[in-house]
From TrEMBL:
Residues 11-115 form the Aldehyde oxidase/xanthine dehydrogenase a/b hammerhead domain. It comes from Nonomuraea terrae. PANTHER family: ALDEHYDE OXIDASE 1-RELATED, XANTHINE DEHYDROGENASE. It comes from the Bacteria. Keywords: Molybdenum, Oxidoreductase. This is Xanthine dehydrogenase family protein molybdopterin-binding subunit. One of its GO terms (molecular function) is oxidoreductase activity. InterPro entries: Ald_Oxase/Xan_DH_a/b, Ald_Oxase/Xan_DH_a/b_sf, Ald_Oxase/xanthine_DH-like, AldOxase/xan_DH_MoCoBD1, AldOxase/xan_DH_MoCoBD2, AldOxase/xan_DH_Mopterin-bd_sf.
Amino acid sequence: MNRIEGRVKVTGLATYAAEYPVEDVTYAFPVQSQIAKGRVRHVDAQDALAMPGVLAVLSGEDPPPLASGADGELALFQSREVAYRGQIVAAVVADTYENARAAAAVVRVDYDSDDHDVSLRADHPGLYKPDHVNPAYPTDSEKGDIEAGLAEAATVVDVVYETPVLHNNPMEPHAALACWDDEGGLLVYDTAQGTTLSRDTLAQVFGLPKERVRVVSRHVGGGFGSKGTTRPQAVLAAMAARVVGRPVKIVLTRQQMFDVTGYRTPTIQRLRLGADAQGRLTALEHVAYEQTSTLEEFAEQTATPTRIMYATPALRTAHRLVRLDVATPSWMRAPGECPGMYALESAMDELAYALGMDPVELRVVNEPETEPDSGLPFSSRNLVGCLREGARRFGWEHRDPTPGVRRDGEWLIGTGVAASTYPARRRPSKARAVVEDDGDFLVQVAAADIGTGARTALTRIAAEALGVAPERVHVELGDSDLPEAPVAGGSMGTASWGSAIVRACEELKSDGKEGLADTTEEVRGDAAFSRHAFGAQFVEVRVSSVTGEVRVPRLLGVFAAGRIVDPKLARSQFIGGMTMGMGMGLMEETLTDEEFGGFLRRDLAQYHVPACADVPDVEAVWLDERDAELNPMASKGIGEIGIVGTAAAIGNAVYHATGHRVRELPITPDKILMPRF
Ligand code: MOS
């Protein structure tokens, strides 16, 4: 299907959070901390208040009240402590955006500054073991004897891989427009990946009953996780609107987004792999070191994919975290699986070379019968099928494994492969389906379409459930007043909302007028199977021996992700993820400012993401898989698996091209050229 909202989007008619016409609207602009750690001693708002159009300056001097217990990133002005450079410490509200921004520049903030620490190290004395990792996995796992497995191995690989801070860069900046009504009810147009969650969070932060809060996010211009949890702009807009008694709009600048909308934690990952002469793993250990803030704990599940990938008698995974004077890391497309599989799949490639074995065959040889960590049966697992189909399509059989020997003028040529995986989950959701006066069907669910095509996919699911043409189905989403639904995240939106829609449509068919569904009960019993999507990424690179530039003329992903609801929408999700994976492999990196705290490279001029010219040939295909264990659609999630494995496949191809193994992302020209000097 074509996107239902495609026309309104490309003609500019789709209304995003900051674009709702609201009378009497005012504008807020944040003032951000200039220090990385310490306390705000005094905020002098006098000059700002004298500027044209200024209505108020909010700060810890006279903090507008919030309910206690709010997330530290959202408890604006409630404490004088500064947790990171860039934290919001004040805000100006004015009649225009320009006046608010100009006045914010003259708010004077004095600090008592402490020494800060913003550097992740694998030997940091502050490393600790969190209680669990995101969202609720055990922190560590251990099966068998790692040391014994390594001791008996014919070949051992012991390597450290590092990934940098990465930032989501959705096209639509984080924005909120907040209005209070005369009865104390709050309406927020927000850039949320889930209006139910955003409503619940705002209700909690402001101490309101849920019924008094409404969040609307009809169109969201990308999120990738950065809009999955409520971000400070929504709280600030609502707080400021209460103070000035008028609606308040706030749109973060791209630079501010880098500071306060979350980021992917940097990782240091040590992998130890042992294998016998046939390539069968005798031991597999994956330890991840990551950071969080002093405000909140976010422990990314980096090593968890290693628990499900390969058969081995000894398997150990662990996560260690350190609290630094940084913003709290958060979700970015495939948190955990993405950086973790980068390291695991790179190390597997190193093992293949050490064994003199084809990297596809190494993975096939280590295919497990059941989930290696838990022993649970897989609901379905077609990794080998993806590898074989990818190898066939890519022309893998003609590959000469020797590194650094193919050359076309200045260009060194290589190919690489990596596996990918992502959990197939679902969460409880409600939905409503009714017959409208004209005989068409209205389907309501507080789902979010953040650019994924969810609105269209859900229309198709409802049409199939009702046995009518999609044109007769109208899906309404993006509003917390609709039936409660989980966030667009964790690649489980379609599975969660779609299940509820199927049930609501079934009930509508028997009732004749209305169907209401709540899947809370049927989602229990998730523990019987290991449920994951799988895939294989194949990459060709050309590396300039003169400049060190890496180009990717071919990128192929083959996925086994359950039944594909709509091929056109799915392809977009897969190739979008793969393109983002190329960014991770070659370009994306936010530098931490060691001296002053905060981040360097806070704009798209310096934080590079792939553009069209970088992806001349990116293709995604899939196996015919139906997973009846998961949901009524027999589908798995597809939003995140495309990014998983791509960076490893690129790094493996760079090694094949150059004979040089880069173990720190991104693989920028300096890292290609430096070894020669
Ligand atoms: Mo995605 S990181 O689950 O929004």
